[in-house]
Write a structure and sequence with these properties.
Layout lengths: L1 H25 L3 H10 L11 H30 L15 E4 L5 H12 L3 E6 L2 H19 L6 E5 L5 H12 L2 H6 L4 E4 L18 H17 L8 E6 L24 H25 L4 E7 L4 H9 L14 H11 L5 H4 L1 H7 L11 E3 L2 E3 L8 H15 L6
Helix pairs in contact: 1-2, 1-3, 4-5, 6-8, 8-9, 8-14, 9-14, 10-11
């Protein structure tokens, strides 16, 4: 069903583009362009003064234009998802959430709304100054939303592409003011990641960047934080994507690091499949030893943070905290804005799940727009999930101590 939505989005985009091009080619007169756009997509007709021919052409144009408009509105609602979800005020008071990649995008938005619900929030960031700005932004949001100051918002250093940083993080957290106040972690929100890195990049640990950023770093981090989880009830929320469908034939264990071949979108699709398989194997192992852990994965949607980074260009992309895009850059993004989510809507599922919503029977499940969704066989392959787990332990040098 969701794949159908993606295909419909692309079809609508193509139709809109072709309509605009046809109108432009038909006349350079602005009045003619407006008239053409009102008639819908121009249809090839034989030249005739026959009234019936004109009526038929007008009817077909109006019918196609009406169908296109109706489809666009319906698809827009589907793509954008529900209105921004805000957990009930004080519903998360006393709970500690650790958010990777918390200084921008979906991570920052999640921090804002979870803090507004009373949570103690730790935003991880590679850049201390960006982390501090994010803390200020989260506190301001909580104050503006609730009228109450939440001073329990912090930033701590973490680089998922550096396993030394990842392995040091649990001790850094344990010694932080955030942990001293709660003495346990209630929610780990594995949010950070990269998408479609244009060329093969190897981290200092010797791994392909997408693989380590999106999967291996989070695998090692979660392992280190497991002993600090609230033993009564805790959640591990991983931001995956419907892009796992790129790897719908199954996870290729021989090409985790682009050893055989590197393609940007293939690497991204594999990493999103790995997020789901990790979630399912984590849940299976936690259940086997009786740990009160709920592990879930989700698809946020095509969110405009990623769109800006990869349409404008990685070399020109800057954090939205640093600089506003140029008029030219915005123009590049406008045609696709309709088919993407705002950050506020895109963060819904991860905020919803981090707020202990979704019901009692959601362990190991996959969510879209705050609702459970079914998965294709590649994401249900528990043999491959177990194999990925063992390889990840070997590569990262960590083991889970439940």
């Amino acid at each position: 069903m969701k794949m159908q939505v993606i295909k419909i989005s692309m079809l609508h985009f193509a139709l809109l583009t072709s309509q605009g091009a046809s109108a432009f080619m038909s006349s350079s007169n602005p009045a003619s362009l407006v008239a053409s756009s009102r008639k819908g997509v121009p249809l090839p007709m034989s030249s005739s003064d026959d009234v019936q021919g004109d009526d038929r052409r007008g009817f077909l144009s109006k019918a196609l234009g009406g169908a296109l408009f109706t489809g666009i509105v319906a698809n827009g609602i589907s793509v954008q998802g529900p209105s921004p979800y805000q957990p009930v005020a004080d519903s998360l008071k006393g709970k500690l959430v650790v958010i990777t990649g918390g200084n921008t995008g979906l991570g920052l938005e999640s921090g804002k709304r979870l803090a507004a619900a009373g949570a103690t929030v730790v935003l991880t960031s590679r850049n201390p100054s960006k982390g501090e700005r994010a803390v200020s932004s989260v506190k301001d949001y909580a104050m503006d939303t609730t009228g109450t100051q939440n001073d329990n918002v912090y930033t701590l250093p973490l680089d998922l592409c550096d396993l030394e940083s990842v392995k040091a993080f649990p001790d850094i957290l344990k010694n932080s003011d955030a942990f001293k106040k709660t003495q346990k972690i209630d929610i780990i929100l594995n949010n950070a990641g990269v998408m479609a890195v244009p060329d093969l990049q190897i981290t200092k640990d010797g791994f392909e960047k997408t693989f380590q950023s999106n999967h291996l770093g989070h695998f090692a981090l979660t392992a280190g934080l497991i002993p600090l989880l609230n033993p009564t009830e805790s959640r591990i929320v991983s931001v995956s994507s419907m892009a796992y469908l790129i790897a719908s034939k199954g996870l290729d264990m021989t090409n985790l690091n682009g050893e055989v071949e590197y393609k940007p979108w293939d690497a991204y699709g594999r990493s999103k499949l790995e997020n789901i398989l990790f979630t399912k194997e984590l849940q299976k192992r936690a259940d086997a030893v009786g740990k009160q852990i709920t592990a879930v994965a989700l698809h946020p949607g095509a969110v405009r943070t990623d769109l800006a980074r990869y349409i404008v260009g990685e070399d020109k992309f800057v954090s939205m905290q640093d600089l506003k895009p140029s008029v030219g850059d915005v123009a590049k993004l406008l045609p696709a804005f309709y088919f993407t989510k705002s950050v506020e809507r895109g963060a819904n599922s991860q905020i919803f799940l981090s707020a202990f919503q979704g019901g009692d029977n959601i362990k190991g499940k996959f969510f879209i727009n705050m609702k459970e969704n079914s998965l294709l066989p590649a994401a249900l392959d528990m043999d491959k999930a177990k194999e990925l787990w063992k390889v990840s332990e070997y590569m990262s040098g960590v083991k889970f101590d439940f």
